Amino acid sequence: MAVVKANAYGHGLEATAGTLEPLDEVDALAVSAFREATVLRDHGVRKAILILGPTVSNHYARAAAEGLSLTIHQPRQIDELAGYAHKASAEALSVHLKVDTGLHRLGFAPSEIPGLVEDLANLQPSVKVSGLYSHFHSADAADLASAKAQLDRFRSLVADLERRNLRPALCHIANTAATLRMPNAHMDMVRVGGALYGLNPSHKHCPLPEPILPALSWHTEVVQVHEVPTGAALGYGHCWQAPRPSRIAVLPVGYADGLPRNEPREVLIRGQTAPLVGTRSMNMAFADTTAIGNPPVQPGERATLMGTEGGNTLYCDRIADLEGTIEYEVTARIPASHRILRACAGESLPSGSGPL
Ligand SMILES: Cc1ncc(COP(=O)(O)O)c(C=O)c1O
């Protein structure tokens, strides 16, 4: 199952799903919300889709009509499913029960599951329990003890359901980290997100195997250059002062485009590193290009926010380290926006388009 939630971790939902849809290795896609699932169906995606987040009961009929599977994680939804099943018009609705084995986010206690599977069996054929799943909290940690304990809880529940002849067809728990590090967590299906995009769940403890590289590159261009003297201050709040005569490039990206407002960040220009300086604005940032040398950086030159430029790389592992976050956040923060044009590898952007 390919996890394309949150606009495919910022990569672009439709383009990513369009790339994954023809692959035999991908049986299903996972999204976080009903609206993401309907966008995929409207875009022609025919593969199975599981909605990982909560779905309100108003959407049950459309979910059934569109062949979407829902996550059922709390008692209120069981009543809502019963209400749905008793409607004469109810089409078969597929659900996966979510069990909380330790993350304490969504899910029933393991002890509740056998009774729920029995109760929901009474709602057939309008409601079908297609799956049972759980989620790890620390499968990317140095110490796998807690992940192993979660897996034990999940596997013993599945074994219990098997004994009672109640086991749903698809039992799944592995995310990227567990797919890589815990083969006995693979079960019927793995739910892989980060690895699809070349994002390390944890650069330190759970790096992706070579040659997997980040899928995303992000480029913009310099729109103006200022030569400023020592002591010149720039940007909102004048928070940065030039420590020496400096050549500052203005870039048309800012915090509304997924850059942090103040945390350290860099770009590559001509393959060389230029630190972002000053406070980023909503749609503008300053790069200190003084060290890049001659000829001086000019408006119109390409600046790479992520990816490869002039033989050098600036990947999410470096950016996440700089910002003190995880790689997933670095790409997931890039919004689905009219300002940010996306193209798959090998495709070009619409003609005449650019960062401006
Ligand atoms: C329920 C669930 N399953 C699977 C995944 C995929 O995890 P990863 O991107 O680490 O593979 C996520 C992502 O956070 C998730 O929330």
Question: How would you summarize what this structure contains?
Answer:
This protein is of the alpha/beta class and 356 residues long. It is built from 11 helices and 18 strands.
Which key terms come to mind for this protein?
356 residues, alpha/beta, TIM Barrel, Lyase, Ornithine Decarboxylase, Chain A, domain 1, 2 domains, eight-stranded parallel beta sheet, five-stranded antiparallel beta sheet, 11 helices, 18 strands, 26% helix, elongated, binds pyridoxal-5'-phosphate
Tell me about this structure.
The radius of gyration is 24 Å and the shape is elongated. It has helices spanning 5-9, 13-20, 34-42, 60-66, 75-85, 113-121, 145-163, 176-181, 194-197, 316-323, 327-332; strands at 2-3, 28-31, 48-51, 68-72, 93-98, 127-133, 170-174, 189-190, 218-221, 224-228, 233-234, 240-241, 246-251, 266-269, 272-277, 285-288, 302-309, 312-314. The protein has 2 domains: 2-197, Alpha-Beta Barrel (TIM Barrel), CATH 3.20.20.10; 218-332, Lyase, Ornithine Decarboxylase, Chain A, domain 1, CATH 2.40.37. The chain has 11 helices and 18 strands. The longest helix has 19 residues, at 145-163. A hairpin with a 2-residue loop joins β14 and β15. With 356 residues, the chain is an alpha/beta fold. The structure holds pyridoxal-5'-phosphate. Pyridoxal-5'-phosphate binds at residues 3, 52, 135, 175-177, 191-194, 201.
